[in-house]
Amino acid sequence: MHAMMLKNLRSPLEWIELPDREPGQNQIRVKILACGVCRTDLHVVDGDLPNPVLPIIPGHEIVGRIDAMGPGVTDLSIGQRVGIPWLGHTCGICPYCIGAHENLCDRPLFTGFTCDGGFATAAIADARFAFPLGETGSDVALAPLLCAGLIGWRSLVIAGQGQKIGLYGFGAAAHILAQVAKWQGRSVFAFTRPEDIATQAFARSLGAVWAGGSNEMPPESLDAAIIFATAGDLIPMALKSVHKGGRVVCAGIHMSDIPSFPYHILWEERQLVSVANLTLQDGIDFLKLAPQIGIVTRTNVYPLAQANEALADLRAGRFEGAAVLVP
Ligand SMILES: [Zn+2]
Ligand SMILES: [Zn+2]
Q1: Are 12 and 45 in contact (CB under 8 A)?
Q2: I want to staple 322 with a disulfide (CB 3.0 to 4.6 A). Which of 50, 144, 208, 214 is the partner?
């Protein structure tokens, strides 16, 4: 197999050849068809996340076909197309796992961060965390659903039932979530980098009723806001944009420090919460709903060997939607 491997933090991924790996107990091996590039991959490369494991193959939006199964795998089959997400393994016995909050497991493995991921021609995965994808939709179009879509979905559920939803940072996750929220009959207010006219137009094309800079206030107060961007100073901005009792959800795995802010923008029962990882049920729920919604992902395809270019373009905001690597 071939892979783009991170050997040292803050350095380019390297093209390497590895011997084929065999799946162990309750594991599968997939031949990778496509793997999305997520902002979290940038955090992995940059060393923003605690306790990095090196060397590591990044990538956690994997679409592949099963070509080998280890002992104990009974409900999947050779040739089946599956998606492999960020949460790659959970212990099954900690209080969070027992309480169906396995997204908060005490001893998890994360695909492309603490176990090898999808910037490769093949990957080994825990069969429990391989979601059957069926045959509808292209491999490339489905890849961004495995993290941008799933984390976006969990964030929207946690944001509550409000009608007016603000999305701060209109990248891969928000461009999927805008379509979900519109399908649910909600109104989306999109916040981009100030003066980013192109992304604001992109957001409107996906049904946003308003799009503006993250330094602006929306034309009316919001029921909830979800922050996908990594700038901590968006938190006070988002708190000011929601009305009394409104909720602000931080969807990212890493943010810059939050500046201090006056208590009154939190008061009146506004809530500030974060979302971490995903549960198996999130994956089942969202991937069942996605084809009904008819989500159309905007993808920018790169050959696997150009993973560094894809990461650089993501960092610089040089495309709308999501980047996807194809072996
Ligand atoms: Zn656990
Ligand atoms: Zn991700």
Answers
A1: no
A2: 144
Q: Closest-lying ligand to the alpha carbon of 276? A: 2
Ligand 2 mean position, distance from CA 34 (Å): 14
How far apart are the CA of 56 and the centre of ligand 1, in A? Answer: 22
Placement of tokens 């150009």 in the chain = 306
pLDDT digits (tens, 9 = 90+) for 223-251: 999 999 999 999 999 999 999 999 999 99
Q: At what angle do helices 280-293 and 148-159 cross, to 10 degrees?
A: 100
The span from the CA of 155 to the CA of 146, in Å, is 14
Say which residues have a Cβ less than 8 Å from residue 141's Cβ, sequence separation at least 6: 296, 297, 299
Cα–Cα distance measured from residue 138 to residue 133, given in angstroms and rounded to the nearest whole number: 10
> What are the b/e assignments for 283-295, b being 16+ CB within 10 Å?
beebbeebeeeeb
Rounded Cα gap, residues 193 and 226, in angstroms: 15
CA distance 321 to 137: 17
Q: What is the pLDDT of residues 30-78, one digit of tens each?
A: 999 999 999 999 999 999 999 999 999 999 999 999 999 999 999 999 9
Ion ligand 2 nearby residues (CB, 5 A): 38, 40, 147
Among all bound ligands, the one having the nearest atom to the CA of 105 is 1
Nearest to 323 by CA among 195, 148, 88, 192: 148
Distance 210 CA to ligand 1 centre (A): 41
Task: Kindly identify the ligand whose nearest atom is closest to the C-alpha of 94.
Answer: 1
The ligand with the least distance to the CA atom of 93 is 1
Q: Are 83 and 63 in contact (CB under 8 A)?
A: yes
Smallest-distance ligand from the CA of 106 = 1
Q: Using DSSP, state whether 45 is helix, strand or coil.
A: helix
